Amino acid sequence: MKSDDVTAAPSADAVTNGSRLIVYALSRADRRIDDFVLHALSALRPHGERVVVIVPDDAQVSELERLRSVSDDILSVAATGFDAASYALVVDAEDDISRYDEVVLTGDAWFGPVSPFGPVLERMAGESSVVWAMVENAAGLPEAFPHAEFSRPVLPWAWIAVRRAAFASGEWKRYWSERATDLGPGEETAFLRHFEQAGYEPSFAFPAASYPSADPALLTPSLLLDEGCPFLLRALFLQYPPFLDRFAVIGREILQHLDELGFPMALVWQNLARNVQPKALYAIGGMVEVLPDIDITYDHSAPLRIAAIVHVSDLVSVPDLFSRLGHLPSPYHLFVTTTDGKRAARLQRLLEGRDDPHLLSFDVRVTPANRGRDMSDFFVGCRDVLLSGDFDLVVKVHARRTRAKTVNVRRYFRRYQYDNLLNSPGYVANLVALFQKEPGLGVVFPPMMHIGHSTMGHAWGGLRETAEELARDLGIAVPFDAVSPLAPFGGMWIGRPEALLPLMGRRWMFRDYGKRTGQPYRNLARVQERLIAYAAADLGYHTRTVLTREHASISHTILESKIDNLFSTTRGWPVEQIALMQRAGDVGHLGIVALARMYIRLNHRRLARMTMPLFELALRTVVVMKYVRRGGRILTSVMRGRSLEGGR
Questions:
Q1: Bridge partner residues of 604 (DSSP)
Q2: Kind and range of the H or E run holding 309
Q3: Which one, of 519, 573, 477, lies nearest residue 245 by Cα?
Q4: Which of 34, 352, 470, 641 has a 20 to 30 A CA-CA distance from 234?
Q5: pTM above 0.85, yes or no
Q6: How much is the pLDDT for 63?
Q7: Is 413 helix (H, G, I), strand (E, B) or coil?
Q8: Does residue 637 carry a pLDDT above 70?
């Protein structure tokens, strides 16, 4: 359907590779232009007479140089992110837009090409529509979850092609002159609707009616890829994970499908690691690997150079730990740190008597006693090892006692960490093989331990603000997770030394660790632990977790029981249950004060804004009183014990 004043649509023969202007916008380029952008532009260039790239004006000169070989021109716009108005700037700057039969408005909103553009472009050349889009979204924008820090992402348009007739009709100029000042992520749809309301029915290369969902790019992307859609939308990986769970969108399956179709996955992981909250990407991508104890993947012809860095304050578990290091599939160098000279001498004798054919050398180092423990010994005491360039992988483990936990919790913690990193020769070979297969894999560690620990839901441990401050100071720009970070809780992991370089950007000293006033960062050791995956992600490295089959069975069943009971008092889908609980707020230590606060938050929002400071003060008072009483009980118990010892 078209208005009478519109000139005839171009014929199929008219829309050729030589009469197309391609305008490709970048969502951001503040420090780096990801490699998937260059890949996409290289594939697009043969299909256009002219390719213009739009970049925010904070792009670095060195990054712009990378774009010049895959584009004809680069337009820098005064913005910190994507603004659709920049499309109009490019088009209106053309001396004679009528010489193009088609203008394609696209950008870095997708990974591709997964399949060639040519067949789709040839098919759509026969369409008479004055505008056409690649994939129809008849459902509207997906739901946003700002309470969980998942707003709708503002990305460049996926793909809208505008024909010469649209410019001749004046509808192009009318849209931009009447454009709302802030249309945000929905503007691509608004642009199509404008032409539809003007009487020009848009067409779609992949219409929603052909698929079992109104938004096939988000909810059924594998079907699109199978039918020749040349790209996969990045917005899929920017959604709130419980929202995708509701529609059974399995990111791991989609990524595997992309891999099977031959797309270079390193490009995908580099971009997602830098731009998606690590814990969210971990959930969407299903990035837990349950590894067998039989070596089935390690390439023995390409061994990796390995350094094992071990902090020791508890000699009891040392023989077991050293024995497990012997499971490494290739020769390794061992660096042991401890804060006691006598303990160091015992460790030296123990290592001299070891019969481990893979142990090439060992170095026992005595470090100052400080509250940073294994983390300070790692980042300060072994800084030379990490920066030497001599190693492909570093195994960071420790043998230290945790006095604040019960015997069972201490025992399972050690078993959980050691088993899931160093369980058996076959298991460790399969773990190291992950690094052989994925050059973009930066760090591997066990999933967050939840048995015997109350970490889940509060894993920032009150340190998020400090972590954000340190990240800013070190130039780490990866978005932070709202609830819990993706982190090696327990301080043990295996990773590439170069993936930790952002955390090595400052030369740390032993005196930086602890809780004394005047230190640059509160609880630095715990903050660094929470930033391991974020530091790696900033360089484009992604993170995976690993489990033995035994621990996967133990963890999943107990976790399932916990979740089942947690959701037993709320109705609806998990995404709705979570929203309700988060709206109610932190219940603290319960009691009448917390319950009253929750009720007001849920039912009287205006009153809540007025009374929340009073509730916070009351809750802090309750917590302080509990700690005072608890401290009194502990002191009484200690004194009673000393009295009994004196009597004996």
A1: none
A2: strand 306-312
A3: 573
A4: 470
A5: yes
A6: 84
A7: helix
A8: no
